Amino acid sequence: MKQIKLPFAFLILLVGMVTLSCSKKDIYIHLTDTEWEVVKIKKDGESAYTKTDESYLLIFTNENTFTINLDVNNCFGSYEIISSGDIEISPLGCTEVCCDSEFAMELARLLPKMTSYYGQGDELILEGEGKIVLKEK
Questions:
Q1: pLDDT at site 30
Q2: Phi, psi dihedrals of residue 49, rounded to the nearest 5°
Q3: Strand partners, 106
Q4: For the domain that residue 71 is a member of, what is the CATH number?
Q5: 99 in a domain, yes or no?
Q6: pTM confidence score
Q7: Spans of the chain below 70 pLDDT
Q8: pLDDT by residue (tens digit) across 30-69?
Q9: Percentage of the chain surpassing pLDDT 70?
Q10: Number of other CB atoms surrounding residue 8 within 10 Å
Q11: Residue 25 placed within a domain
Q12: Which of 112, 106, 65 is nearest to 88 (CA)?
């Protein structure tokens, strides 16, 4: 009876470890000199994501600045990693050419409201007053 219980207990322990490691958030993402394509956004208080077929690139150019390309306008700002997983993003400065889509304008409004970040596979997740999901470029 003991011979059956020991391998079974080991199997349960192994399955538990694998499950925990798969669901763990990888907050040790290096942002400097990386490019991320926006996949979807979710406004605060909404349950559904809004997806995009357009290509919006968020580029962390160095240790504290970034750019983001919208439909027509280009924006820039600064960021600071407060602690592992915590980020502070400045209000954006953008060119003022007309005609960005509603999605692009919402993205520009949401970005400075993000207060935390983590990685999941090849995705960067920004959270705060809403959520932005990006895929590594």
A1: 87
A2: -85, 155
A3: none
A4: 2.40.128.270
A5: yes
A6: 0.80
A7: 1-25, 27
A8: 899 999 999 999 999 999 999 998 999 999 998 899 999 9
A9: 80
A10: 10
A11: no
A12: 112
**Residue at 5: amino acid letter:** K
Residue 120's Cβ-count burial label (10 Å; 0-12, 13-18, 19+) is: middle
Q: In Å, how far are 18, 31, 62, 75 from 65, measured between CA atoms?
A: 36, 10, 6, 11
Structure tokens at 122: 């090849």
Pull the structure tokens for residue 92: 């954006």
- Which whole-number Å values give the CA distances from 5 to 8, 15, 16, 17, 99, in the listed order? 5, 15, 16, 18, 66
Residue 117 domain flag: yes
The Cα–Cα gap between 121 and 72 comes to 30
At 42, the amino acid letter reads: K
Contacts (Cβ under 8 Å, ≥6 apart) of 102: none
Residue 112 amino acid letter: P
